[in-house]
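Team,

Forwarding the record for the chain on the shared tracking sheet. I've put the sequence and predicted structure together so nobody has to dig through attachments.
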Amino acid sequence: MSRLLPHPALSVAIFLVWIALNNASSTGHFILAFILAIGLPVLTQRFWPERPEKVKLLPAIRLFGIVLWDILLASIGVAKLVLGPLGKVKPAFVEVPLDMQDPFVGTLLASIVSLTPGTVSIDIDRSRWVLQVHALNVDDAETLIKSIKTRYEKPLKEIFSC
């Protein structure tokens, strides 16, 4: 069954989105939605990274709350920077050394950093396991590194037991 439906939630989402976008209830659209819902995940299976099997739900919920809070605070901070004098902006590239070597979890970390306004993940150097980040305003690079490691990397390591 996992070969036919490697990502069941994605298949359901594709089916529902296709039906919603076409705003039609003809048999042809349902058949095409079904074909796409089964075919696309199967055809793209080799591009998907290996997912960790164990996920701890409670730490994941806590991390979700932390990320939402950080997005809110960072949005306010970026708005103040953009609307204020440009001389106060101190952009910088920062390298964050990672304590884990899981490509999937590293990608999640990079995504979380990029979701937070004012920071963008540039790359994960897998030879050194370093996350390269560009930040809009950096007073102290070590403080930024410590913040990313404690607020995001540590909970991700707990969630995925890595």
